[in-house]
Amino acid sequence: MTSTTIICSLMEIRDQLIPILQREFLISKAIAEGTFNDSLQPHFVRFKPTIHIVIEHPYVDRVYRDSFYSYFSTKMGNYKKDCIRLSFFDSVLMASDFRDKDAIFAAQSHYLGFMVLRPTIPSIVGRNVISPAILQQNNFISVSSSFHATVRGAKFLANGFPHSSQDAETISCAETSIWAIMEYFSSRYSDYRPALPSTIIKALQSRSNDRQIPSTGLNSGQVGFALREFGFGTKTYSKEQFPGPDFKRLISCYIESGLPLEILIDNFSTAGTIGHAVLAIGHSKTTATQIDKLCPTVETDPSIIGLITAKNILLYDNDDVERDLVFIDDNHPPYQLAPINNPAKHYNDPDWDLCKISYFIVPLYPKIYLEAFVAKSYIKNLLLRENFTILPNTELFIRTFLTSSRSFKDYLASEKGFNADIKEFIMDTPMAKFIWVCEIANKQLIKQNKANGLFILDATEPNLQNYNPLVFAGYSDRFYYPDPSSRQLNEVLLNLGIFSIYINNLKGF
Amino acid sequence: MAIIINEKADILNRLNAEGKVKTMDSPEAIAMREEINNQMLKVSKDYQHKANLSQIKASEFTFTA
What we know:
Structural class of chain A: alpha+beta
Radius of gyration of chain B: 24 Å
Strand content of chain A: 25-35%
Number of helices of chain A: 15
Distance between the termini of chain B: 67 Å
Distance between the termini of chain A: 50 Å
Largest sheet of chain A: 7 strands, antiparallel
Largest interface: A-B, 61 and 38 residues
Number of strands of chain B: 2
Strand order of the largest sheet of chain A: 1-2-3-4-5-8-7
Largest sheet of chain B: none
Oligomer: heterodimer
């Protein structure tokens, strides 16, 4: 058995790939053409026309091999165990480019990811990591990571978010989304391990009354259980329990924190039968128009409403900005943009159009004990109750997110806009591994990606009494901090200055 | 020669000397702290109730599409 490599352009991929699909997956030409049209063409039509593709086969893919040995090989049918791999570059390629050190180094900057094709007709798109830069339309920001790959034996790094279609037998949408979350987190943090399909199935043995394969999907309790087994402190939020604008704000806040969310959409409320799991990993880039159109936040907490009215201020929440979310949907190519109130817009189907987000699950680091709903309320109470100089008719734009104190201090170390004394004060303050940050600005400042207020909370402290979670609270001409021994609040009269906002989570705003 | 860095303490000492640091221990400040304490107790209880119901309701539906 020998490996075969074909290098071709996007225009040539169909003619090159269909005979390979026929031969390698033992299917007729008609089925190969149908599979290409239905499963692959939707990916390729979104690519820039300058893309060149390296086709390699046979290819051993660890995710498919896991499904093969645990399931497909136990069936009577003749299932192949090898896959085909496609690698994408945005430059013309020669075979010799992968046999020269300098050429390989140059090719890395043009490498845009890979896609595995597995012999599970018709859902042949397997594990793939594709850079958003490959797309003709990529006006969004999202979390991403780096994944090791090879092309013709040479090592490359693919940047993007992991995606796969469901094979609908060993994994449905729910298991695929768990797999993608673990694939992402394990590539970034050593606390986590990748979860192959059989690992996910095994983790859920104790939570399943029926046989687990062929898969008939999972409920959110099982999804949350699996993620907890794999090391997360998961939280589930229901639209019914967080009504009005709160649910959307929570989704937005966690996405701004750079956390991929397990989003559960359904049309059950319209007597439909669709229940689907997708991931939300980012949002469309924020425009000045969106900021200008933003209305003052509609508060659901009566005490906050009272404070806003008493102080006669205009409070705007970044989590109210109307942005599209970036979805990783195993029924579609990665990076689908859709509004939060129409998460299945990309299906172009009347039944799917009725789908709404009913629940979402956030995979938190297990030591994050202070969650978003309470953290945001605490920040607003501090901002509006403490003695900050907030004049009537002041515009306050708040942007709240989670981040690691390590990343935040790294950003702060080189941020020149901050008052130098306050910067050193914060840098020298011990913090938990994860912190809640709230940047305070107005519309004018935030359009320039600037702010003039900063709150920092300890995300490991859920006890909100006596300023326990407070690390730093500063706006305009003063800041507050709790004395470390007495927890007595101290006030310091010092102007924060105007500084650039933190954009490390999604690499943009 | 070793360099000892303790900028936070130096900054606070200087600002203290300039009269820019104040401990919030007045009756008004203590009352404000209590007000925030009480409000956040309510918010936490409200959240716990919603979180528990979220878990229960979400488990009723299977996602498979």
